[in-house]
Design brief:
alpha/beta, six-stranded mixed β-sheet, 8 helices, elongated
């Protein structure tokens, strides 16, 4: 890239003084007034006073405006969401003390202030699911989630302001092709049921395929649960994997964890709990949109 040739004359920048023409100095005569440069203004005491008043007024106005802005921002930060006053539920109970399930619910509820009042303390309680330790079949998994939600709601004392979470994971069967292993048709899915004493809403997660070696230990004579089968098949050495990243965490090397797909199912279950007006949808009651029968 070419540059403009530099001249030997002095270059000026906004920060360098312009050279003044050299004029011979005239010896001062005692008692004579100093000559004033042409075009220069004499700043007397009155001029400085007026400038000071103007600067003071400008500073005061700026300070007031900045204070008002700070108060407005502070109100936005500290004020509770307007929707929190209309939150449907003031108590949340989880039908399990599995840390993955509890952590997943905790991570989600703050995103739904119109459903669950901000600051609500989450409770967890161990309740029976009414299904085997390793549920197999979509109907069985859904039934386990529903019963956990109902039992948790009852354990918390009931009430229409209490929302109970029932979370159940299990295996579902998917049709297979002849080119696939006979046990490659089993997938793991998480089902979340939300119960408020009158209505039930459901949500499902994504599903992932169970390796045949693990499925064989679950579906065979050993009848292991998924965590036991995962260790027995050599996919993990952690017997408590179900309370941590889960089998999905081992298979994906941590890219997706049990917590992740539990959160997904929770969000799906909360979809019908959000006020329809906030989603631009026509008003409808849960009774007209959600089946409340137990499998």
């Amino acid at each position: 890239m070419s540059t403009t040739p530099q001249k030997r004359a002095t270059q000026h920048t906004p920060f360098s003084p312009r050279p003044q023409a050299q004029t011979p100095r005239t010896p001062k005569t005692p008692g004579a007034a100093s000559p004033t440069k042409r075009g220069a203004r004499t700043a007397g005491p009155g001029r400085f006073s007026r400038a000071g008043v103007q600067l003071t007024k400008a500073g005061t106005a700026f300070g007031d405006a900045f204070k008002a802005l700070g108060q407005a921002v502070g109100a936005l930060v500290t004020a509770p969401p307007a929707s929190s006053a209309k939150a449907q539920f003031h108590t949340v109970v989880i039908g399990s003390e599995n840390p993955v399930k509890v952590d997943a619910v905790t991570a989600v509820v703050a995103d739904y202030p119109e459903v669950i009042r901000p600051g609500t303390v989450l409770e967890s309680v161990t309740v029976p699911s009414g299904v085997p330790a390793q549920p197999v079949g979509l109907a069985v998994v859904v039934s386990g989630a529903r019963r956990r939600a109902r039992n948790a709601h009852e354990a918390a004392g009931g009430g229409s302001r209490t929302l109970a979470f029932g979370i159940e994971s299990g295996l579902i069967e998917v049709p297979r092709e002849s080119t696939e292993h006979k046990l490659a048709r089993y997938f793991d899915v998480c089902v979340v049921a939300l119960y408020d004493g009158g209505h039930m809403t459901l949500g499902l997660s994504c599903a992932f395929q169970i390796p045949p070696a693990i499925a064989a230990k679950v579906m065979g004579d050993e009848a292991m649960d998924l965590s036991e089968a995962t260790v027995a098949a050599g996919y993990s050495k952690d017997g408590a994997i179900g309370s941590k990243g889960g089998l999905i965490g081992a298979l994906t090397r941590g890219r997706v964890t049990r917590r992740d797909y539990t959160i997904q199912a929770i969000r799906m279950a909360l979809t019908e709990r959000e006020p329809r007006a906030s989603r631009g949808l026509p008003a409808a009651s849960l009774r007209n949109t959600v089946a409340d029968t137990e499998a």
